[in-house]
Amino acid sequence: MENELYAEAYTEAAPMAYAVYNFESTALELARAQWPNYADQHYLKNCKWSPDGTCLLTVIRGGGMNVFEMPSDLYAAESILQSRVINPLTPAVSVPETGLIYDYMWYPGMNSSNPATCCWLSSGHEGPIHLWDAFTGDLRCSYRGYNAADELEAAMSLTFSADGQNVFCGYKKNVRIFATGRPGRECVEYPISHQVSCLVASQAQPGVVAIGTVKNTIELVSQSDGSFRHLCKLQAHKGAITSMCFSADGFRLYSGARKDKDVVCWDLRVPGRPMFVLNRECNTNQKISIDLSMDNKWLVSGGTDGKVQVWNVSEPHYPTVHMQMSLHNDSCNGVSLHPFKPILATASGQHHAIDPLHHSRTMPVYENSLCMWWVGPQQEDPDLLTTIIKAASNSSSV
User: What is the pLDDT of residues 100-151, one digit of tens each?
Assistant: First the structure.
C-alpha cells in the first residue's frame, strides 16, 4: 500500500450531484435486515454509507462487521412507487469480529471502481486498529498504539484525515497519528488531558480535527508536517462527546453527547458560544449519531425513543424540527444520509437488562435492525390508483 495510490484515488473520485431530499412526506422503507434480539443481545452500533454510496457498513454486537450493497434498482431511481416491495438485506461481506468494536470509519476516497481504495478502519477492545478490505473482508494491515509501559492500547475513537493520508486515533491521554501507507507502531502523538471519545476531520480545511473527550469538551487542532497547533476549546455539553460532524464548507461543527438531549451547532468563525442548540431524545449512555447532508441543508439525528428528527439548518432563523419520523420501536442509534441519493439508513437496538430468574417466561421482542428509507419523490401505484377510481365511480353510480 502506498500513499501515492491513495492520493491518486482520492483526487480522481468523480464529483456527483447532491441528493434532493423530500422531508415533507413519510419515509418509504426500501430494505431491511434483522438480527435475533434477546439471548445474544445483537443490537447494532451505528451505520455508515460508503463515500461512493454503493454500500452500507454496520457493526452488530456479537455479530461482527457487515457490508450491505445498495439495491440495484435504486441507482437510477429518481422517484419510488409507494407499493415497492421491501428488499431483505443480506451481507455482501462479513467480518466475524466477536469482540467489542469501539469505532469504525470508511476510507474517504473509497471508490468501488478502484479496489485498492475499498477499505475501512476499526478499533476494538484490547486490540490494534485494523484496516479491512471491503471486497473480501480480509485484514490488510494494523496500526498499533502502545502506552508508557509498552503495552498494546486500544483506540477508543478514530478517523481518517480529509485526504486519507493519515489515521487519527484517540486514546486515554493522547491522539496518535499514523501514516495510512505505513502500518505498524510509528506515529506522532498529541497529548490530551482526558480520554478521547470522538474524532472528526474537516473535509473543507485539511489538517483541522475536532477532538471530543469524555469530559464534555471539544478541542479543535490544526495538524500539518507532524506538528499540532491548538485552535480553540468548545464546551456546552453535559456528557461525553459521542458524535460530531463538520459542515461541507468547514464553518460549522455539530456535536452530540451521551445522556444529553442537546445537539449543539458551533460557528467556528466565532467559537466562543453555541450558534444554536437543537433537542432530541438521548437519555442513556448509548452513542446516538447525527449526520448532515452534503449540501449543508439537512441535519438528522436518531433518538432513544426510536424517532429520527430532521432540521433544516440552512434557514436564516433559529431551526425548529422540520420533521419527526417514528421509524423504530427501539432506540435508533445510527443515522446516515446517502451522499448522492435521497436515502436514509438507520440502525436500531440497545442493550437490555436480562433477569436470569425469568428466562422461561415470554420475553419482549426488541428491534435490532438495519433499514434503508426513501426520503425523495414518491409515486402512487398506478394499478392501485386505477382500482380506487373504479371503486369510487361504481359507488357513485349506485
Answer: 899 999 999 999 999 999 999 999 887 899 999 999 999 999 999 998 889 9
Q: Please give the mean pLDDT across all residues of the chain.
A: 87
Amino acid (one-letter) located at 314: S
Contact indicator for 182, 165 with CB cutoff of 8 Å: no
What domains are defined for the chain? Answer: 3-397 (2.130.10.10)
User: Which pLDDT score, from 0 to 100, does residue 392 have?
Assistant: 55
- Per the CB < 8 A criterion, the answer to whether 23 and 343 are in contact is no
pTM of the predicted model, to two decimals? 0.88
DSSP string, 247-276: -TTSSEEEEEETT--EEEEEETTSTTS-SE
**Integer Cα distance of 141 and 43 in angstroms:** 27
DSSP reduced 3-state for 397: helix
Give Cβ neighbours of residue 223 (< 8 Å, ≥ 6 apart). Answer: 161, 166, 177, 190, 207, 208, 209, 229
Confidence of residue 6 (pLDDT cuts 50, 70, 90): very low
Distance CA 381, CA 393 (A): 18
- Residue that is written with C-alpha cell 506515529 in the block: 187
Give the whole-angstrom CA distance, residue 102 versus residue 128.
Answer: 11
Query: Torsion over CA of 281, 242, 366 and 374, rounded to 10 degrees?
Result: 80
Residues near 244 by beta carbon (within 8 Å), at least 6 away in sequence: 198, 200, 210, 212, 218, 253, 254, 255, 256, 290
Say how far apart CA 289 and CA 185 lie, in whole Å: 30
CB atoms under 10 Å from CB of 395, counted, come to 8
**CA angle (120, 122, 169) in 5-degree steps:** 105
Place 7 in a pLDDT band, splitting at 50, 70 and 90.
Answer: very low
Amino acid code (one letter) for 53: G
| Location of C-alpha cell 483541522 | 208
